[in-house]
Sequence to fold (106 residues):
Amino acid sequence: MTTNDQPGDGWTLVLPRQSAWIVDGAPEGGYAADFELICCDCGDDPDLDYCEIRPRLQLVRGPYTIAAGVAAYEQHSRLHQQLRATWASATVGSPPLRRHNQSGRA
Fold:
């Protein structure tokens, strides 16, 4: 889990503090007491404010207290691990996709 307010390289899931408010695209006035869960694998963009993301992503983002945020982070991380494992097992041993020519025949 990334514990600082700015995520490092290679991250896909982070639990930063919410900005107090956004002015001209930059945080102003420090940070709020709440945290938010940002998941790039789900299509969230950390450069967008809460009101700029889709409602489904707002549900993932929160806000959370620190305890609830850590629990949500762990649950969300497990969900993605399960999805990756399911996808990997579904593709192991599968025949390669056959390309079709323009006539529609393989």
